[in-house]
Amino acid sequence: MTETVVSPRKPRPGPAVPVEPPGATTVPRRRERSAGRMRALDGLRLVAALMVAAYHYGGRDGEVAEAWGSSPKLQFPTLHEFLAYGCLGVQVFFVISGFVICMSGWGRPLRSFFASRASRLLPAYWVAVLLVTAVFALPVVAYEAVSPSDALVNLTMLQMPLGVDRVLGVCWTLWAEVRFYALFALCVVLPGATRRRVIMFCAAWTLAAVVADNAHMPLLDIVLMPEYAPFFIGGVGLYLVHLDRRDVYGWGIVAVSFLVGQHYAVQDLWHAPEAGGFSYRSSLGIMLVVTFGFVAVAAIALGWLRWANWRWLTVAGALTYPFYLVHEHLGWVVIHALHRGLGLPSAVTFSLTVASMLLLAWLLNKYVEKPLTPRLRELLAKAR
């Protein structure tokens, strides 16, 4: 992962939070756990999303600098160095996703698994694509919208492999999620999830990803995702620990995944101090954030956060996915309006932008996801 500029017209992959949609924390019947524990997982998801939002608003340069009127480095002279670590929220979220997808796919037939994943992802995604396209097409908005043809392709979620301009710059993480879903579905869900099969899946993917990284074959990189695989696999291993905290193989999967994952995070996000660089992330700082992600999910897996049983955490988890979809590009528009249009201070603009995106996420969840997700799931589950 590189620290590159994400734009609506000629985007390149940039850090963003890959979000497991709301409702995905249903526990398999074979191992019922307390609701408070899953609420803690919802809370962690929102923390990861806010980390990425902080990065997009104040931890990088690019189009957001146009919204502020100057580099966020000048808007937040000290804070920007800490906000730059927010991009690691994506690694935290991949660990969460590995845990949740293993939990969601255990004991579920392939059709039901597919229906669940598609119905969680698509309704809010479709509306977000249409909404951002419409807003960027307004004459008063300075950012250029993608072509109508590219916008239509974006509705398929296949814009990344097709090389089409993205409406949502952050949707590259959904492409990573979809590939993980496909691998897990074919190797675990289709034949039936068992402990032995999950262990073999994790071991085979880890080895294959390491080999692919050194083979320099683009097709293998696309399928096996060497730089992201350790985080997904680590989350799967933590679910094995969730089922049995004495599972030595589960702990081994987690340990290897952490060691390899922190290597990729440092390799992709560290750079030597330079005058022209936006900010400097130390290798130690990167390792600490990756460690936080693994430890936080491990604490949930072990039941240490059962006490976090507040209902508002469920609401927080429900807002995470729509917030992720809309926060970056629409956030630029809000920042420009509040800071340059109304002259509000940087800190106030930052806070109000986050709040406005959370409000929009609540509206999307209430009026899009809640009515459409169960209907789409039912249609897909019944389809032959």
Gist of the model:
The protein is mainly alpha-helical and 384 residues long. The chain is built from 16 helices and no strands.
Structural description of this entry:
With 384 residues, the chain is mainly alpha-helical. The protein is 69% helix and 0% strand. The relative contact order is 0.17.
Write the layout of secondary structure elements.
Blueprint lengths: L34 H24 L4 H6 L3 H4 L3 H5 L5 H17 L4 H27 L11 H7 L4 H4 L9 H18 L5 H21 L2 H7 L4 H15 L4 H22 L13 H19 L9 H31 L4 H37 L2
Helix pairs in contact: 1-5, 1-14, 1-15, 5-9, 5-12, 5-14, 6-15, 6-16, 10-12, 10-13, 12-13, 12-14, 13-14, 15-16
Order of helices and strands: HHHHHHHHHHHHHHHH
**DSSP helical segment count:** 16
Mean pLDDT: 89
Distance between the termini: 39 Å
**Uncertain stretches:** 1-37
Helix content: 55-70%
Radius of gyration equals 20 Å
Main sheet record? none
The shape, in one word, is: globular
Structural class designation = mainly alpha
What proportion of the residues form beta strands (DSSP E)? Answer: under 5%
Strand segment count: 0
List keywords for this structure.
384 residues; mainly alpha; disordered N terminus
